[in-house]
Amino acid sequence: MSAWSVLGSLEAVPALDRPDLLGEPVAHALKLLDPADAALVGVAEIDPGLADTAAFCEAYGSPLDGSANCVVVAGRRGDETRYAACLVLATTRADVNGLVRKRLNARKASFAPMDDAVARSGMEYGGITPIGLPEDWPVLVDAAVAAAPAVVIGSGVRHSKLALPGELTTRLRNAEVLEALGKRTMEP
């Protein structure tokens, strides 16, 4: 339960105890996890106006380097578009035009438009998380996230956040750990 302290001043409970704080695809995916893994995931209710990472960290005293952002990337080659989720620390940016573009075997890669990401993930913008994404999407996890003792991620909705050991993200369906996926942008 110490991984949940990354939520700062918030008090977390086991995520499966509060399905009302989870997006539907997230709740479904958590139920499919090994029960021991699911028990490592905590959820805390937040003000939905504070769902964006910087505002969340400031309001609740959560460390910026303990938050991981999940971004949806669309890679295109000809008429085909492939999607992936990238999970990187909030102090970094995903290497979309390098590593991700190559991994998707795409000529061009960019952040998926908000409406597209929301519709395809079944999650709210600002709450998209690697747990419960479509089965054919790779979940690219930066090695720094995987090595973190704990991270805060979205819950599929804007009115809560999840906390879990970084290593657990490597056991999610379709997870692939990539070195240097996240490029440092700021100091924590």
UniProtKB/TrEMBL annotation:
<protein>
    <recommendedName>
        <fullName>YbaK/aminoacyl-tRNA synthetase-associated domain-containing protein</fullName>
    </recommendedName>
</protein>
<dbReference type="InterPro" id="IPR036754">
    <property type="entry name" value="YbaK/aa-tRNA-synt-asso_dom_sf"/>
</dbReference>
<dbReference type="Pfam" id="PF04073">
    <property type="entry name" value="tRNA_edit"/>
</dbReference>
<feature type="domain" description="YbaK/aminoacyl-tRNA synthetase-associated">
    <location>
        <begin position="48"/>
        <end position="167"/>
    </location>
</feature>
<dbReference type="InterPro" id="IPR007214">
    <property type="entry name" value="YbaK/aa-tRNA-synth-assoc-dom"/>
</dbReference>
